[in-house]
Each structure stands twice: as C-alpha cells, then as structure tokens.
Amino acid sequence: METIRLTMAQALLRFLDQQYVERDGREYKFIQGIMGIFGHGNVNGIGEALEDERPGLPYIQGHNEQGMVHTAIAYAKQRNRLGIFACTTSIGPGALNMVTAAAVATVNRIPVLLLPGDIFACRQPDPVLQQLEIPSDYTISANDAFRPVSRFFDRIMRPEQLMTSAIQAMRVLTDPADTGAVTLALPQDVQTEACDYPVAFFHKRVHRLGRRPPAAEDLAQAVRAVQKAKRPLLIAGGGVHYALAADDLRDFATAFHIPVAETQAGKGALTWDHPQNVGGIGVTGSLSANRLAQACDLVIAVGTRLSDFTTASKTAFPPDIPLVAINVAAMDALKMGACPVVADAKAALKEIHASLAQMGYQTQYGRDEIARHKAEWDAEVDRLYSLELEDGLTQTAVLGEIDRSIGQDAVIVAAAGGLPGDLHRLWRVRSPKAYHMEYGFSCMGYEVAGALGAKLAEPEREVYALVGDGSYIMLHSELLTSLQEGRKIVVLVFDNSGYQCIHGLQRAHGSNGFGNELRYRSSSSGLLTGDYLSVDFCRQAEGLGAKGYSVRTMIQLREALEGARQAEQSVVIDIKVFPGTGTDVYESWWRVGIADVSQNERVLAARRAAAGQIAKARSY
Length: 620
What we know:
Blueprint: E1 3-7, H1 8-16, E2 19-23, E3 26-29, E4 31-36, H2 46-53, E5 59-61, H3 65-78, E6 84-89, H4 93-96, H5 99-107, E7 112-118, E8 152-155, H6 161-173, E9 181-187, H7 188-192, E10 194-198, E11 205-208, H8 216-228, E12 232-236, H9 238-242, H10 246-256, E13 260-262, E14 277-280, H11 287-295, E15 298-302, E16 323-327, H12 330-333, E17 339-342, H13 345-359, H14 369-385, H15 395-405, E18 411-414, H16 419-426, E19 435-437, H17 446-457, E20 463-468, H18 469-474, H19 478-485, E21 490-495, H20 500-508, H21 537-544, E22 547-551, H22 554-566, E23 571-576, H23 601-616
Parallel strand pairs: 2-11, 4-5, 4-6, 6-7, 7-9, 8-9, 12-13, 12-15, 13-14, 15-16, 16-17, 18-19, 18-20, 20-21, 21-23, 22-23
Antiparallel strand pairs: 1-10, 2-3
C-alpha cells in the first residue's frame, strides 16, 4: 500500500480538498475554503499546513470566531447546502466563541465544519494556556461545550484517528436529514504529529446526494388524506429550497388550486405575486395566510420543522384537522401527529402529484377565494409601505422604499429583532434565494456576517444586511472581512434606540417596558429611563473603511440607496426609524411565559388571556 508521510493537519486539509457532492448528475466541490483566526492552538498546525502545503482551499481571515462561522453558515444556506467552509480557531476562548454559531447551524440544519484547537493530548505542558481544568475529569476541555450543539463531535487524539473521523464527519455534513455543525477538536500537538497515511485516503471522493423516495405505504396514506380534503393548505419550509423543489411545489399548488403559505426559511419558494402564494404563516405571518389556515381542513407541510412561530404555538389551524408532513428527517415528519412522508421533498411532491392527477383531484376553494384574500393582503402591504410620519421615518415605509429600490435579484439577509416579522409579512420576493433569513435560532449578530457569506456564495448579486441597532452593536466584525476580501455588502442599520422588538413584547404582556431601550441612566430614578443614546453608525463605519450614509428623511434614504448601488466597497446606511412603527400580529398568537403572580394587574390580565389561548391549542 502506497503511503505518504504528513502531519495530521496537512492530511486533514488534503482530504478536505478532495471532497465533492453530486446532486441530480451535477458535481460540486464541497469544501470551498477555510475561515480562521489563529492562536497558539492552531497556528503551527493547521496554520502551517495552509501556508506551506497550499491546498486548493482559500483562507479567509475572520475577525470574530462567532461571526466567521455565521459567514460560513450563510454561505452554505445560500448554496442550498451544496458547498461549505470549514472554520478553525485556537483553544479556549477562541473555540468557545464558535459555540453559539454551532447551534445556529444545527438548529437550521445547515452544514458547517468546525476545527477548534484543543489542549495537548500528551498532557505534558499541563495546564497549558487557556486550558479548562476540571478536577474530577481530566478528559474534559472547553471544546466539550460543542457536544450538545453538534450533529457530530470527535476529538482526534492520535493522527491516524483522522481517517475514520474525517469520513464520518463527511457522512453527517452531506446527510440532508442529519446535517448541522460537525466539530473535530484538534489537540495542538496532534495537529503537528506525522503519520504514514495511505495515498488512497486523499483520492477524490464524491458523496452522492440521492433523493429518498417515499415509502409506498406513506405515499398511499398521504394521497388518501389529500383526496379527502376540500380546503387544504400547503406550508413551504426551507426544505423546499434545499431539495431544489420550488418548481415542483409551484406545479403542485397550481394544478390542484391549493394556497401556499411560507415559513421564514421557505419564503421565496414562490414569487410574491404568484396566484397561490398567500404569504407568511403563523406569528409573523400575513392576514391572508392566517385566515386560510384557520379555515383549512388539512395542512400539507413540506420541508418545515413546524416551529412555534410557524404554527402560532399550535393555534394556527383547527386543532383536530389532519396534517401530512413531507420531510427527509423523520423527527420533523412525525411532529404534531402528522401523517409522515419521510422522503425528499421533490421526489414526494412529484409522486403525490401524479397520484392525485390520475384521480382528477381538485380542491373546493371558490374560484376567486384565494385571489380575494391575496388582494386584501397586498393592499395592506401597500398601506404599510406608504405609512409616513411628520416627525420621523416609520420602519414599514423604510422597508417599502428599500423593497422598491434594490432590484429584483438582490439578496436581503436578516435574523433577529422586529425586522424578521416585518420582512416575513411584507417583503416581496421576486427571484430565487433573494430572501435569506436565519430564524431557526434567530441569532442576534448573524446579519452582517451572513451578508458576507451570501456574497461569497453569489458574488454577482447585490447583498443587503437588514439589521437593528442592537444586533449591529452586538456583532458586526465581518464588515471588516468584507472590506479585506473586496466583497461589497450593504448594511442597512435600523436604529430605533434599542431592543424594540422585546420592548414591544414586554408592553404587550402588561409591562411598562424595562431594560430594553438604549437610554442613559436617570439620576432621579436610578433606572435606564433617561434620554436616548445617540450613536453615529455612519462615522463608525467610515472609521473601518466602509462608505457611510446617515439617513433621517425619505429623500436621504433614496439618495443613500442610489449611492450604495454605485459604491465599489461595502456601505453602511444608518437609518433612524421611529420606535414601535413595525407591523402588528395579524390574527395570530405566540405563547410566552407570563408571571402567575404580579403586583401589576395588566400582567395578570395578560396571563388570563394567554390561558384562554392555551386551552385552544393543539396538544401535540
């Protein structure tokens, strides 16, 4: 057997460079590069291998470990999981900074490979700098924090262990039902140790992403359920995109005249103006979708986790109606007592479509019923997009101007705060993958890094990060990476002086508002109830080297958007919007914990109201 002597880090990079995936006869290079921040735990291992081996894996320098993993996640999401980046860090704090982002990947079913450095396997320089010492268990390091947020975790204690572990890591990364964060913890000494690796280990490997067909029994049961339904509702989830099944969903809905409601991850499966698209579903959904959900007699859920936002905490549709859940992951297909179709979305839709067509199936929606609901909602969006104040900008009017201005092929990226609700309800998606929302974990700080990831995935498209001031302050480090890499992104900062989404949630449940606005501490009360802080995000961005605009009027916004289009480097537009001017809940409900005992009567009233909703919710 022919062998080659390499360090473990060198071998890992050679292996990663030869991994490919195949989907529907088309081949894609899977590992597109390495993002990293170096420290003593990886600079002389993976760092040396990247410098001297020069594999076909470009290196991108991150500026915050969590941020760079968000960038990698967004890249994989935008590429429909057909390409990924690996992320390397040092040990200790550098590694732990990735844990939050690992959860983002796992919750959203997005593949990302994490390569944190680890403490010495030999244990001789003990304790090494940044080592976490647990007196009762010396096998534990800081990297064990990755275990609950990773779909696969291993610690490479000997260089030859790499071969088995790397193949298992690729199994998970390329499994549509089991993917998420994969963590290989790499002790810094083992990274540099040499081994005689078989040359065959570095041959090109193609991982075929086959389409799992539905089992005959599942298919028959699903067809019977749909055949009985007079008023079914389709819910399109992110799995529609990842299975490349948007066209099949459109054909299915059109053929049988079924309205389609979209989750945050599924939005854009149909263009906004398609006759069957009735908008977002659930807590952040449209009035049209939520009313049709309340009146439906079957839900066909395609590629969705059926989260609490999608199902309005299990109150979005009548509690006793059946569900058909098409999902490649059995865990998701079995939720809420659904009739499970554990299969690839494209394959399942095609087969169910063929069976129903043979039976001559049609729904019993009135000829203009879906169109009427849709027209009413479109008029409401137009109203909100034109809603202006005399003394400031409303968030919905700003969104309307951006929606009209940026072009139908531009990509928007968002994640947390009030913007996801407004965007889910209002944003008009005109082209595939133009709506990029991280709402599985709704992680503050994803937006700017995510915009860079989307830009890396599709450099020919304009990419806009829509981010609240709270999220922007929390994490915007990869704006610097975008400048460094020459990948222009446009960051739209909605400055409403704090965490106004949660401030609104407080007030909606009886609170006067506490601790969520960016205010000075009051000298009289001792609370954070003084004047609003004034933050100049424009000047801060210019200090990093980006182009900055400060917006206070609609005219200034139009000028800034035009300037951003013409700019060659990344742009930050600081938009001052009036607090509390987003959208409201449209006949939907979200279950949150409310105090059972309080001195505030409004809180107790909110508790009683919630109890009434809980009583109406589906129990499983």
